[in-house]
Amino acid sequence: MAPSLADATTAPRKSRRDLILRIVSALVLAPLALLATWYGFPFFDLLLAIGVVLAWREWRLLVGGWRRPGLLLSGMVYIALVTLSLLSLRHQPETGLQGVLWLFATVWATDIFAYVAGRSLGGPRLAPRLSPAKTWSGALGGLAAAIIVGACTAWFFTGGSVIGLAMAGGLLSVVSQAGDLAESAVKRYVGVKDSGQLIPGHGGLLDRVDALMAAAVVMAAIRLAGDARWPW
C-alpha cells in the first residue's frame, strides 16, 4: 500500500520533533556530565553510582529479567566494568580530568558527526540487520570527526605531538560505533526499539551511553597497559 499524504507530512514533523528533543536532552545532560567530571570526587562518583543503578534496572527490563539469565548477568557485569573503567580514568593523578574530557570529546564528536553525515549524505547501510538507520557515510563522518577533535583536544591539553592520540581517537570512534551496534543487536534480539524511555529523544540511558561505555573500557585497558606514548 502506498503511503498516504498524511503519512508523508507526519514523518518529517516527527523527525524534527525527535531532533529537537535530542538537542534539548543533550543541552541538559552534557553540562551535568561535564560539571561532575570537572569537580571530580564526590560528584563524578555519585553521578556514576546513580547511572549504574539506572543502567542495571534498564538492562534487567530490556532483557526480561531472569528469563534470560546469561544475557542479564553478562550485561550487569559489563556495566560494572564500565563503571570501574571510568572511575579509574577520572582518578588518575594529574591527568584524570584531561583524559575523561578527551574521551567525551572523541565519543561525542563521533556521535554528532555520524548523525549529521548520515542524514546529509545517506548511502549504503552500515549494518541494516542491526540498525537500519546507520550508514557508511555516517560511520566514516564520525571517524573523521573523532580523529580531528581527538587531535585538537590532545594538543590543547598536552601541547605536544598529537599523531598518536589522533590515531587513538580514530580507534575509540570505531569502538564506540561497535558498542552502539552491539546494543542495537541486543534490542533486535529481544524485539524492542529503545532500551527505555528515560531520556526524551534518545530512549533509554543505555541508548545514550552505549558508545561511551565501549570506548571507556578500551581506553582504560590502554591506560592499564602503561604505554609510555599515552599521556592519560
Tell me the structural class.
mainly alpha
N- to C-terminal distance: 56 Å
The general outline is: globular
Q: What is the radius of gyration?
A: 18 Å
What is the overall number of helices?
Answer: 7
Spatial order of strands in the largest sheet: 1-2
**Total count of strands:** 2
Low-confidence stretches: none
Overall average pLDDT: 88
Strand content of the residues, in percent? under 5%
What is the share of helical residues? over 70%
What does it look like?
The structure is a single chain. The chain is mainly alpha-helical. It has one domain (13-225). It is built from seven helices and two strands, in the order ααααββααα. Strands 1-2 form a two-stranded antiparallel ribbon. A hairpin with a 3-residue loop joins strand 1 and strand 2. Helix 2 (43-63) packs antiparallel against helix 3, helix 5 (136-158) packs across helix 6 (163-190) and helix 6 (163-190) packs across helix 7. It starts with a helix and ends in a 7-residue tail after the last helix.
Quick recap of the structure?
The chain is mainly alpha-helical.
Task: Detail the topology: elements first, then pairings.
Blueprint: H1 5-39, H2 43-63, H3 69-90, H4 96-121, E1 125-127, E2 131-135, H5 136-158, H6 163-190, H7 205-225
Antiparallel strand pairs: 1-2
Helix pairs in contact: 1-2, 2-3, 3-4, 3-7, 4-5, 4-6, 4-7, 5-6, 6-7
